[in-house]
Amino acid sequence: MKHLYIFIILCVLAIGLTSFKTFSDSEKYKCMIQMTNYSGEGAYIVISLINPEGAYEKTLQVKGDDDEWYNTVESWWQFQGKVRADLDAITGATISGGERAISVIEIDNDKLDKGYKLRFESAVEDQEYYQDDVEFELTSQNLKSKINGNGFIRYIRMMPQ
User: Fold this and answer.
1) Are 73 and 152 in contact (CB under 8 A)?
2) Tell me: the pLDDT tens digits for 106-126?
3) Strand (E) or helix (H) holding 40
4) pTM (2 decimals)?
5) CA-closest candidate to residue 42, choices 4, 5, 69, 11
6) Is the dihedral of CA 147, 60, 95, 133 positive or negative?
7) Sign of the dihedral defined by the CA atoms of residues 7, 12, 15, 18, in that order
8) d(Cα 120, Cα 100) in Å, to the nearest integer?
9) Backbone angles phi, psi at 40, to 5 degrees
10) What distances in angstroms separate CA 10 from CA 17, 18, 20, 106, one per listed residue?
11) Mind listing the pLDDT tens digit for each residue in 12-47?
12) Cα-flanking dihedrals φ and ψ of residue 41, to 5°?
């Protein structure tokens, strides 16, 4: 009888402990951005989630915290200007030529392997704007890869955290 009580108590404790565990519908990824060796001001970089139809769905990160220059990231600004999402929690400093920055972005699991893309747009004051400096399909494999850029970004590397 004593063993039965101990068994019941252990079962209740096990159920109680597992009920506090939360299961996330998203994962965090380290994102390293390595810039090319350009001269000039720091680059404004926007990381966006693009839906399978090619439209903006969500802004994941903004490198550049002076909203006066957001309009230089032209395509994203057209989306952001309509949506007016609060960016305070996802902004940081610009990244200058030759520098690298590591940040953490959170991606919903239901977006993986479903035709969604990550787009990295870049703009530098008095220089070019690259709408798709880096753009790739959001697949499990790509989230563990190094992907080359087309403009101010030399490459990005994604790593599950």
Assistant:
1) no
2) 999 999 999 999 999 999 999
3) none
4) 0.82
5) 69
6) positive
7) negative
8) 14
9) 125, -165
10) 10, 12, 16, 36
11) 666 655 544 445 699 999 999 999 999 999 999 999
12) -65, 170
